[in-house]
Design brief:
Blueprint: H1 2-21, E1 25-29, H2 36-47, E2 53-57, H3 62-70, E3 76-80, H4 81-90, H5 94-97, E4 100-115, E5 118-121, E6 127-130, E7 142-145, H6 149-160, E8 165-168, H7 172-180, E9 186-191, H8 196-199, E10 206-208, H9 215-218, E11 223-229, E12 233-247, H10 253-268, H11 270-275
Parallel strand pairs: 1-2, 1-3, 7-8, 7-9
Antiparallel strand pairs: 3-12, 4-9, 4-10, 4-12, 5-6, 11-12
Length: 297
């Protein structure tokens, strides 16, 4: 009997230890492969190898990420701040305010891409320019977009008062194909510069349009920025929106510990993230101090 009791105690200890040692895996919604969010998730994983066990879930972007987080399908999500604010302030969804930011990250620029304006002669020989030169020229025109950029396009439409028609597509490829085919007059994309796919656009066909909306109309959502793609138009005025890593306000001790370990490691490794060759250049703009959303503590 004594031997049986001792064996049971040892079995219980081993079982308890095994359970305690089992890692907590957290799913993280990023964005498609090659996106700023996906690259930054990769970079943090390389400098915080033992902080927590995180699995990437690549998505279409911020809108899908927010739905996955609110639907308890992931524990963390990279989300544009305007998408989060729109859900809170415009949609009045009380669940949005319950979310917490684990890390405030970089600012992604709004890229407004259009076909390069063309000069045409009418029957009388008069030369006219066909095409948009700035955001306000898109009045009554159609703008294609996808993912979290759909929210950005709607916010700019509302804030500016410019009556554009917003056409939502499944992904970047479909949207750019629509622009090439003349089905939309411009494409709006929120992405951290320099974006490789924008750098490779044919400068003879495409250009970047300035976003000429007064600053006081977009305060609270965006800050001023400048696009620098020499082949598409140097020093193009635009706006940028912050991307943050968001989580729910979890209470489970094991999950809180995993999240706080990941947060602590990332905060302590900013210099390594900024100076490691091959890491995303947007790390050089991150301070981990700029914040406009409640922290996970």
């Amino acid at each position: 009997m004594k031997h049986l009791i001792q064996t049971s105690i040892v079995t219980l200890i081993i079982s308890t230890t095994a359970q305690a040692a089992a890692p907590i895996f957290l799913d993280v919604a990023t964005s498609p492969k090659g996106s700023t969010a996906s690259d930054m998730f990769r970079d943090i994983g390389r400098v915080c190898t033992n902080a927590s066990f995180l699995r990437q879930r690549q998505t279409s972007g911020s809108v899908e990420n927010l739905e996955l987080l609110l639907g308890n399908q992931v524990s963390l999500a990279f989300i544009q701040l305007d998408v989060l604010k729109a859900r809170d302030q415009i949609d009045k969804d009380p669940r949005a305010r319950e979310l917490k930011q684990l890390l405030p990250l970089n600012f992604d620029e709004i890229h407004l891409i259009a076909r390069r304006p063309q000069q045409k002669k009418n029957v009388f020989g008069k030369v006219t320019t066909v095409g948009a030169a700035k955001f306000s020229d898109l009045k009554g025109k159609k703008v294609g977009t996808w993912g979290g950029s759909v929210i950005t396009a709607n916010v700019l439409k509302a804030k500016s008062g410019v009556p554009i028609t917003i056409a939502e597509y499944r992904n970047r490829e479909d949207t750019m194909n629509a622009l090439a085919a003349g089905q939309v007059d411009a494409v709006l994309s929120v992405v951290g510069q320099p974006a490789d796919w924008i750098k490779t656009l044919d400068a003879n066909r495409y250009t970047l349009l300035p976003i000429d909306i007064p600053t006081d109309r977009v305060n609270g959502f965006y800050r001023q920025a400048t696009l620098r793609y020499p082949q598409l138009g140097s020093s193009v005025p635009t706006y940028a929106v912050q991307r943050i890593l968001v989580t729910r306000d979890f209470k489970t001790p094991e999950k809180r510990a995993a999240l706080l370990n990941y947060q602590k490691c990332a905060l302590s490794k900013l210099t390594a993230l900024q100076e490691t060759e091959g890491f995303h250049p947007k790390w050089n703009e991150v301070t981990f101090k700029e914040s406009d959303w409640p922290w996970f503590r």
